[in-house]
TrEMBL record:
One of its GO terms (cellular component) is plasma membrane. The keyword Glycoprotein does not apply. This is GTP-binding protein. It comes from the Eukaryota. Keywords: Calmodulin-binding, GTP-binding, Nucleotide-binding, Phosphoprotein. GO terms for molecular function: calcium channel regulator activity; calmodulin binding; GTP binding; GTPase activity. Interacts with Calmodulin. Belongs to the small GTPase superfamily. RGK family. The keyword Signal does not apply.
Length: 176
């Protein structure tokens, strides 16, 4: 559905406390209104350059991890062109939650063309780590999606995740 160059709708998914808001804040930058005209509380649209070409991303941080209301959650599962599936490497429950969300996404998007990146955030918290890099990588392999570890606190690999997303969206477009 997305046009070449976007805007692509990228949805942040994951358990409460894994760093979705931190990701959205980095994406929105200094929240300078000139810099990001279309930014609200939960939605931010921005043009970024990836591999020398512009791409417009609409980032949605609308996922309500607390609610058990499936009707409230479903729109998030359906409206994305791509998904960043976050967990915290310091929280095994959030890793298991990411697996459940991956399964739900597969039901909603049965064709394998929707890019998903499994993101292990908080990799700066070395001594509180509960999920190893190899577990994250193995999970991504099983779920047939990309994998990256990030630290929103250190601004490490966050833009790499967004850029990886754009590359996958472009590949998908070319292969159509
Ligand atoms: P959300 O519920 O998924 O939106 O999670 P938040 O973005 O609100 O993050 C929850 C808490 O974790 C906040 O106190 C953040 O400052 C903290 N946090 C988020 N990302 C990181 C990270 O990469 N490293 C560390 N050390 N803390 C983080």
């Amino acid at each position: 559905s997305a046009e070449p160059g976007g805007p692509y709708r990228v949805v942040l998914l994951g358990a409460s406390g894994v760093g979705k808001t931190a990701f959205a804040n980095i994406f929105a930058g200094a929240a300078d209104s000139d810099d990001c005209e279309l930014c609200g509380e939960e939605v931010c649209e921005k043009e970024i350059e990836v591999d020398g070409e512009p791409a417009t991303l609409t980032l949605l941080d609308t996922w309500d991890a607390e609610t058990d209301n499936k009707c409230a959650q479903e729109p998030c599962m359906q409206t994305g062109d791509a998904y960043l599936l976050l967990y915290s490497v310091t929280d095994r429950a959030s890793f298991l939650r990411a697996s459940e969300l991956r399964i739900s996404l597969r039901c909603v998007h049965p064709a394998q063309h929707t890019p998903i990146i499994l993101v292990g955030n908080k990799c700066d918290l070395v001594r509180r780590r509960e999920v190893s890099v190899s577990e994250g990588r193995a999970c991504a392999a099983v779920f047939d999606c990309k994998f990256i570890e990030t630290s929103a606190a250190m601004q490490h690999n966050v833009w790499e995740a967004f850029h990886g997303m754009v590359r996958q969206l472009r590949l998908r477009r070319e292969s159509k």
